[in-house]
Amino acid sequence: MDKDFLKQLNILYVEDDELIKKELNDTLKLFFKDILLASDGEEAIELFNANQKNIDLILSDINMPKKDGIALLHEIRKIDKIVPFIFTTAFTNHEYLIDSIKYGVNDYFVKPLDIKELLGKIETLSRKSKKQKKIDHYQNMINEYLDTINKVAFVFVFDKNKKITYVNEFYTELSKLDVDDVLDNEFNYIYHKDIPSEIINKQWEDLNNNKRWSGNLKFMTKDDTAFYSNCTIIPVLNENGNKFISINFITTKEENNRRNFKKKVLYNFNETKKIYRKAQEKIDSLTKELEHYKGFEKKESEFEKVKNQNNEYINNINNLENKLKDIRNRQELFTKNVNLKMKEISESTDSMKEQMIKADKKVIYLRREIKVREHYIEKIQKELQIKKQKVSDLEDVLNHRESQLYNDKNKTKK
């Protein structure tokens, strides 16, 4: 299954059962570009007429109100012989199947559907349909080209046996010969007798080797009047073998003028048709594109509303940015002042550190001095203690001596 190919397809899906339609639509949307939905045959016809160029396949139920699937198929085939048409049905009814085959249904599936098988069939039918549309398109172009050629050049066709099988009206008018006078004769029968056999033989040799032959040839009319052409003979292979198409533009002055005038008219006509076709395709394309812009005014109004809201948001953002800028400026100023204060504190701290170091040194010095002095005081105190003891001892000695003296004195008096 080629998913990329399926994604290019648009499907018209017709089903009156809303539940079945929703379930299958949800699945189909995963595989296809677009799904157009209809609930009955009448609605489907309206959608097909409005979107014919874009619809690649129709998938339809049979039993529906208003207009059933068979009637829908009949109407579609009046409009389009090629678009693939698949029936889905809950049961097989022989009368329905016979009618559907009669009106050109491509296939049918019995519900419940096998999705994989359905997708495979849609891909096969769509490829075949697209190929046929291309063939028809090129065939129409060829027919238009041949129609143009038939009006400005004389054409004859001969087969592998050299027998002429076709001459156009332009030749019969020019040569004044009837068609029956020419058919079944060898191709050189309409050449002028002055043409050497060597040229005719070389011409036939090239054509048998599937080579295109081009050159100037001389022809004659019924009354033996000569006329000339710029001739191109093209070998074409068909189911019956080779055939050869000879396209001749006459080269007499009068006929050239007539041919050029016709060519100019036909060219202008064909160019006008091309321009009209392209214009119509452009109109169809623009019409389809316009469908995507339905409700644009409403969306434009909503867009304006959103735009105004965005402007309000932008203004709010600008105000917030200004406030943020002011806060940043104040923060920078505050940071600057704090840095200055920190610098002052740092410098003051450094000074205090120096002073503390000096004070610590001084304290250490004073502690040493105190210890020295404490030792000295302790030493003096010890000396004082010793001296105090000596004084006390001396006082005891003096007191003893005084006591002795007093006693001695009393003894003397007695």
From TrEMBL:
The protein, known as: PAS sensor-containing response regulator
Gene3D superfamilies: 3.40.50.2300, PAS domain
DNA-binding recorded as keyword: yes
Keyword Nucleus: no
CDD domains for the chain: PAS, REC
Originating organism: Malaciobacter pacificus
GO biological process, one term: regulation of DNA-templated transcription
UniProt-recorded Gene Ontology molecular function terms: phosphorelay response regulator activity; transcription cis-regulatory region binding
GO cellular component: cytosol; protein-DNA complex
Top-rank taxon, per record: Bacteria
Keywords: DNA-binding, Phosphoprotein, Transcription, Transcription regulation, Two-component regulatory system
